[in-house]
Amino acid sequence: MQPATRKTRTPFFLATDLDNTLVGDEKSLLKLNELLKRKKVQLIYLTGRYWESARKVMSAYNLLPPAAVVTDVGVEIRFAPDFEPDPVWKSLMKQNWEPEKIKILLRNYRFLELKQLPHQERLAYRLIENRHNIEHRLSSTLKKHGLQARVIVSSGVDVDILPPLAGKGNALKYVQHKLGIPNQRILVCGDSGNDLDMLLLGLPGVVVSNAQPEVLEHCLPHTVYRASKPYAQGIMEALEKVNLY
């Protein structure tokens, strides 16, 4: 009689923003890295940075090798081991994306300062004057002129204009599907406005205590834990409290 084969358990995944979530306190980051290695947790990094900038952060802070990296607020996805841009996702990002028309439309908005990026897969602006409800106002303006795009405001000053299917939430769902990650085997971590759509997916999640007001004041699903500690400490707190792995 053949012995019963043990079913292999799906690895646990930590899907985390970089700046001011995972990165921000080097001492606690070292402790978290040790915990993740010991528990054999897989990593997915999701950041507003473009690829080369994200690589520099991963190198500078000796971050653990990830299974996937989502950059540019969900515009680009790269999978291990080669970390080339995923071609299917890349083609989706091109649909109805008209960056030149958007730049022309917004160039007379003096309260917006265009940031220089090495590509036009997204447009990034800095809000140099306070404007009430800027996300809704810009979205309405784009729609009025027949332009399909997402507007995401983070930290009160960073304005990202993305292809209509972009965003960390949609990107994470794509990664989750491609890697076959069940909902109960992932923890989503964030701190600012561009993390909201992945925190609103209904997956287990954590908001670190140093999060921006737009996240702390948002009505989040009951699946999201509000940590009492900042940065990597908050992630460790959530891992211990939720005990998912």
UniProtKB/TrEMBL annotation:
Sucrose phosphatase-like domain span: 12-240
Record GO terms (molecular function): phosphatase activity
Protein name according to UniProt: Sucrose-phosphate phosphatase
Alphabetical UniProt keywords: Hydrolase
InterPro entries: HAD-like_sf, HAD-SF_hydro_IIB, HAD_sf, SPP-like_dom, Sucrose_Phosphatase
NCBIfam families: HAD-SF-IIB (TIGR01484), SPP-subfamily (TIGR01482)
Pfam families for the chain: S6PP (PF05116)
SUPFAM superfamilies: HAD-like
Native species: Calderihabitans maritimus
